[in-house]
Task: inverse folding
């Protein structure tokens, strides 16, 4: 008679665990960066790479990037003006410094006021968080580039960057 | 005689319905055919376009297969490491049903690989190739 209770117990533990994770995430966990929720942004900014979380860069960064899509890190990622405008407002509204906050995310610590960094992977805080990652790991064929967050952070699509 | 008429109108109805049922992929092919003044498209030419190495585009993307992979029914991979769903319609049936998406990526990817936009003839050949895969 004990056996039937097991799955239930495990189910309850799982439930409790995800509730915990959720609560931590909502409380502004430093590992959590809300993923893109807008379907247009996901489609247009998520086909060549992970749709990066808007909170990882300040609003100025997104504004500049969206104005230079014809030369986007060497690629042409241009969009029609209406789509580009829609995406810009989403990124800006959800940026790391949205709503006039200094910086909501620790990832933006050390970024000069007024600066518009274009790479998350060049933010001072990002670099220091990854200083221990060995060289061979970056060159691994499953990684290819620092921007391939998902290769190491398997839950990056869901917004989690623990490891 | 009456039976004959029923059969004939049945056939006519069938032909009509296949015409009206033609999906967005067929519409796209028809548009390319009109623009290219082409008499037909060739899957073999499409395959050559898909696998050939070009030198006019970017050095790190010499071919469509650089990102889409050699196997049309297998997943590809963008240079950033992100997986790309197979280009073969038999595996990814939702492909090429949004004309704006198709045109956007032809424009981007042909420029990357060939250093110029693809012609309507090339687009039609390539689509014919992957639709048959």
Result:
């Amino acid at each position: 008679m004990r056996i039937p209770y097991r799955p239930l117990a495990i189910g309850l533990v799982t439930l409790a665990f995800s509730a915990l994770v959720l609560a931590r995430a909502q409380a502004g966990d430093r590992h959590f960066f809300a993923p893109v929720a807008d379907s247009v942004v996901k489609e247009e900014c998520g086909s060549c790479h992970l749709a990066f979380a808007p909170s990882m860069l300040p609003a100025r960064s997104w504004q500049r990037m969206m104005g230079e899509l014809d030369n986007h890190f060497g690629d042409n990622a241009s969009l029609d003006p209406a789509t580009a405008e829609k995406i810009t407002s989403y990124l800006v509204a959800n940026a790391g410094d949205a709503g006039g906050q200094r910086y909501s995310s620790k990832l933006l610590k050390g970024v000069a006021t007024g600066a518009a960094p274009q790479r998350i992977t060049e933010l001072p805080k990002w670099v220091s968080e990854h200083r221990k990652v060995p060289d061979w790991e970056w060159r691994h064929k499953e990684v290819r580039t620092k921007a391939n967050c998902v290769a190491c952070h398997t839950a990056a699509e869901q917004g989690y960057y623990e490891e | 005689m009456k039976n004959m008429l029923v059969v004939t109108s049945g056939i006519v109805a069938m032909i009509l319905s296949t015409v009206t049922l033609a999906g967005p992929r067929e519409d796209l092919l028809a548009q390319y055919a009109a623009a290219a003044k082409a008499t037909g498209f060739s899957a073999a030419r499409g395959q050559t376009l898909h696998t050939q190495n070009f030198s006019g585009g970017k050095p790190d993307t010499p071919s469509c297969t650089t990102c889409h992979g050699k196997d049309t029914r297998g997943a590809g991979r963008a240079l950033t490491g992100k997986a790309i769903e197979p280009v073969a319609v038999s595996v990814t049936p939702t492909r090429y049903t949004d004309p704006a998406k198709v045109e956007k990526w032809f424009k981007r990817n042909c420029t990357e690989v060939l250093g110029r936009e693809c012609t309507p003839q090339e687009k039609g050949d390539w689509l014919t190739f992957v639709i048959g895969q």
Chain A touches chain B at residues 47-50, 74-77, 142-145, 147-148, 150-151 (CB under 8 Å). Confidence is low (pLDDT under 50) at residues 1-28 of chain A. The radius of gyration of chain A is 18 Å.
